[in-house]
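Following up on my earlier thread - several people asked me to post the actual chain instead of describing it. Fair enough. Here it is, all 463 residues.
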Amino acid sequence: MTVAAEPVETPESGSLSKSARSWSMYQGGRDTYVIVAGTYIFIPYFATSVVGDPVHGQSLMALYHLVSGLIVALTAPFLGAAIDQMGARKPWMFWINLLMVPMIAALWFAAPNGSMLPVSVIIVMLTVISVILSYGEVVYGAMLPEAATIPEQSKASGLALSLGNFVSIFVMLILLALLIPEVSAFVGLDKIPGGVDRFSVVLVALCLGLGTLPLLRNSHDAPKTGKSFVTSIVDGAKNLYHLIRHAELPFNPVLYLIARMFYINGKMALLIFGGVYAAGVMQWSPTELLVLGILVTIAGVFGGVFGGWLDTLIGPKRAFELEIAVTLLCAVAQLGVTPNSIFFVFPASADPILPLPMFGSSPELVYIMIAVVLNIFGTASWASSRTLMAQLAPHDQLGTFFGFYGLSGVATVWVVPLCIEFFTRVFESQRAGLVPASAFMLLGLVILFFVKSPKQTSQHPEA
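Reply from S.P.:
Thanks for posting it. Predicted structure:
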């Protein structure tokens, strides 16, 4: 039995419907974990203060991303196929976030040197959160064609990324205020080891919970099929097996997923290890990392809007190609910057050339400028990537393809961290460790050139 779909809104010209806006708002809460906790605040704190050694910390991060990536790679396609069988996405989102919010908040107990929770326990928690977060991305992406019409999809996807960066800026400004001794003393964080870094995950959990509410309340969802959870899992697995065995998956979307697989895994490595890299190579303090996070996240706000605009102007495929190319160039350039050199070969002084409280030397200024451009185009690439998938996938296999979409984000995730861990350990260099990330991004760009652009239609079919 199929339950009727929710009524479709007709938004005013140039605006987004409440359904599309609410869908975008969820990412405003979700991305605080990726940006604030996963990149600039908690993970660098974990690698340096909890583990005690940034090089060993980077290796441990590679390990937990390896494990979580393998789990998602083996299970995400089955989740996507089950979603197609069950129809409605909102129940999945409810349970995913109900599990994730308290687990993120519990990272508060990750005290320096593992004095409250052992490092091994924290690694397990981070692994579980990473898996659930990836599952949420599969379901969330599969909601886009129902939550937004095709003309809205680029704007909604770009707005989602912008909101993720905007809310992250707000959280980081709160954390920056808490670093002021008087403010920290007033709220009692000054006497707690690593108090501000640990409090970041509490704020992240709160943002994720609040961002989930409008999605569940206002966004349009696919109709329920009446199938139970167990039946959906079984039937989805059978259907997935049939599609793969009989080679019934359309070639063009599959080729796109392969291209995205290589690029996204390289890009994720930059995102995951970026904060640790800046802390170790540029020798920046937690306060400097927080300011770096704010600056590049502001750039990400513009990146989301820019990505939606570029999609509309030249199409999501060409936009994605341009965004990958610029991101790759910036990634390589960033590896060429150290406190005493610029672009690998040009020596530079670590002495300030501008009277700034931080980032005053020429290498630091160059690093910041590269990071800003990288995040504008990197954020835009997330938006274009998702929009392109929504337009390339057959409508009756959206869940399946967003399951593969989730898989493409982690299928080679075990390779990238393994390469990073190997390069970091063998060369005893964080710079050398991140070289494989750029290689994966380049390979993804080359394959993307062979993907055909989607045919545009005015509206998705109504259930």
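The first strand starts at residue 341 and ends at 342. That should answer part of your original question.
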